[in-house]
Amino acid sequence: MPTRRYRVFPAFCLLLTFFFGQFPTVYAQFKSDSVTVKGRIKNLTLQLYRQSPNVTVSRNNILQANREMARPAPLAADGSFQVTLPLVYPYEELYFNFGQISTAFLGSAGTIEIALDADSLFLSEAPFRFSGTNAQVNNQLTRYKAFEFKNKPKVDNRQLAKRVEGRSADDSRKILTNEFISTYEKYRQTHEVLPLLDQYIRSGIKYEVSTYLYDRALAEQDTRLETGLPSGSSLRPADDLFLTVQRTTAMERFAAYANSRIADQTGRGVPVGTFARLVDQYIRDLSATERTRVDELKAGKTAVSRDMPMLQRILQRHQDTLAKLLVYETEMSQYRKMVDSTGLDYLKANFLESILPDIELKNQLLLYRHIMPQVTDPHYRLSLEELYRLEVKDSATVRDVAEKFTNQVDEPVEVLSGVTLMRSSHYGKELLEQLQKQALGRLVYVLAWSTDVEPSRQEALAARAIQEQLGSRDVLVAYVCSSQTSMELWREWVAKNKPKGLHIFVDEDQLGNLLATLRAEYIPAAGLLGRDGKVLKRDAPLPSKSDEVLKLIREKL
Fold first, then answer.
1. Mind listing the pLDDT tens digit for each residue in 186-212?
2. Rounded to whole angstroms, how far apart are CA atoms 12 and 340?
3. Which CATH class name applies to 34-151?
4. In 3D, which of 238, 166, 176, 231 has the Cα closest to residue 208?
5. Is 491 helix (H, G, I), strand (E, B) or coil?
6. Which of 181, 236, 361, 463 falls 20 to 30 Å from 315 in CA-CA distance?
7. According to CATH, where is 2.60.40.1120 located in the chain?
8. What CATH code is assigned to 405-555?
9. Residue 242: exposed, middle, or buried by beta-carbon count in 10 A (0-12, 13-18, 19+)?
10. Do the Cβ atoms of 495 and 401 come closer than 8 Å?
11. pLDDT tens digits, one per residue of 311-336
């Protein structure tokens, strides 16, 4: 989905309507189950252990398709392991990884045991043996996956697109289902499939179909498919017992399609009653006159033209708080016209999930407290809670770093071991000289990036991995960052992720000047400076190409 940006909401954009509703104050309490995965790798050799001293068990979160929630489990001397994971749905697709060996299996509350023999890891089609919860299903699933790998035909996307071209959602669904289920039907001809496994496989196929339809509707803006409207709820039934990667992907595509349907609408805003309710809930410094009128508007009285200056003044005084809430309320008011209640519930949770990495800790808390009571589906609530807790788990470190670095200009401050922050006032050659001074005779690998864009953040994390491989004795990694959001967001990102090296915050003009020096047009961009501060390599490989970066640096050491 496109990155959401906060907009300034002038008061005249607020719609003069009576539409407003009460937020739910009571919601169902729901506690997650858990599954324990344990087992043993027999005949584990020292070489295999050194290559992979851990196994990893991971699961999905329905609000975040591009991320697996992984739990590592250290291997004991005898090859045994054990890890416990929370479960949100009754049945969840889990993934076991050891080195280059992996398998999917079905998890539910209880204990699942996995046995495998190191001597046959690369020889057997199905080296895994399951016992405990869902043992029969998982053993049959392992055999089916081996069958599917050997027999699944390659999909001809062009031919498939022609077959569904101009078709309704129902006709397209039938054609796609027949296409995607063919390998499974072939397996069923010679194997009696357990009922639970049958439901699990069919659930995954159903969401593969949903993903295809949402992608097609998104690419072509084909409203004939009706995939984002209430009739599309059959593509995402709320009562499905299974959480699979196909389901998380389909829901992500649904959100992208729904967002695309409102992206081009102009003049959007929220009703005055909604704005008044937000002011009443979050703003405390109202004058007596403002308080009286806000109470009247909240109660449903019609706004008049003389109210606009007052509302605009309130908004200007509290732009940082109200703008964020208004972005959310505006999107939801549009979605209510397009999707059914189950779809709207997902979109509420999806809004917060998608925006969490792009906002500061204080605003994460603000939106979490505002949105969470409105999400009624217990599975979405638990999924959102999980992601929120991951985002704020380092809040103590964030506060500690904020106390040490407040915005000192051209004064480096070591806020964590090996992590230094600085706000630079310099451009061009002077900025490079500043980097050289901090490098103390080392090479400097420079990454120009921004906290505002996910690919840029991923490159910064990849640079952290490179620094960890090289150490800090001969090479300094300098992260030069600009943010349209705030310096505070940059400081918090560093505190949470702790990449060792020098972190410099600059404004957009300074970053543009650095990009010109590196002969790059866009961020992220990289370069390599010599020990004397001169540029050795402009437009250097980005950190994600770690082999190329390491080769370049080692050649210059």
1. 999 999 999 999 999 999 999 999 999
2. 30
3. mainly beta
4. 176
5. helix
6. 361
7. 34-151
8. 3.40.30.10
9. buried
10. yes
11. 888 888 888 888 889 999 999 988 88
